[in-house]
Amino acid sequence: MNLFAASLDRLARLGRFLWSAWAGLAGLALIGALWQAGHEAYGDFILTAPLDTLAAAARLLHEGRAQDLLALTTARALAGFGLCALIGTAAGVAAGYSPATLRLSRPVLTLLLGVPPIAWIVLAMIWFGPSDMTVAVTILISATPVVFVGAVEGVVTRDRGLDDMAQVFGAGPVRRFLFVSARQISAQLFPALILALGSAFKVAIMAELLANAGGVGGALARARAMLDIAEALAWVSLAVAALIAVEYVLIRPVRAELERWREAAAPWGVKR
Predict the structure, then answer these.
(1) What are 98-157's pLDDT values in tens digits?
(2) Which residue, among 99, 109, 272, 255, has the nearest Cα to 185 in the 3D structure?
(3) Displacement of CA 249 from its chain's centroid (Å)
């Protein structure tokens, strides 16, 4: 019976999650309207019409050129994102529980955030050449500080009273962290992870373009050389679509599972 109730609860949350996509579609429609207005104001050479861009994207998919390049860029972005998520989360949680470590890390964060990603791309190209390592290292250095800060904020802003209450009821340190602290940390961590994922895709495409390492960045470089605005915007649209798909398939479901307590804690009739 408990398993059946849990399954119904997950299905209900999945239904609400899918229904909430209407708000996102409305936002995309607004962007499309502004895009169309810009096209009418400046013409095809500056900004191709949204429908023409979609037609160019459909042509790239039909020709089979897009799938492999999107897969390559997505794999590179996810490799770098996985490294920065793992290292940033572990280091941020450790620093959050250690004030001395947190104070020591602040100048390092300022240094990493102060150097633009393009500088790391140039250095990585010198170190590793036009390879997957160049993309992964650039993403790691650029996005890890964001995840680190999110993990630290989650630790330092958690409700310590809940941890003390769990200890009174006999929960050990590992159980308290997994079932009490980790769920509170996730409230600050997941927005940072989503931001890091977007940065991973942006940095991956930028590194591919500058290093001539193939992928979507290489395709954008060719479109720029041919002054093909429609194809360039089509590649950008396809990359954004891949980012949205990864976010809503990989991160959002995990976040919804870990933040069930938010819905349980909300008063009847209150929707966030």
Answers:
(1) 888 888 888 888 887 778 888 888 888 888 877 788 888 888 888 899 999 999 988 888
(2) 255
(3) 11
Tell me the DSSP string of 88-147: HHHHHHHHHT-HHHHHHHHHHHHHHHHS-HHHHHHHHHHHH-SSHHHHHHHHHHHHHHHH
Tally of CB atoms within 10 A around 208: 27
Count other Cβ atoms within 10 Å, centred on residue 190.
19
Residue type, 4: F
Phi, psi of 89 (to 5 degrees): -70, -45
User: What gap in Å lies between CA 176 and CA 159, rounded to an integer?
Assistant: 12
Cα–Cα distance for residue pair 32/245, rounded to 1 Å = 19
Classify burial at 61, counting beta carbons within 10 Å of its beta carbon; exposed 0-12, middle 13-18, buried 19 or more. middle
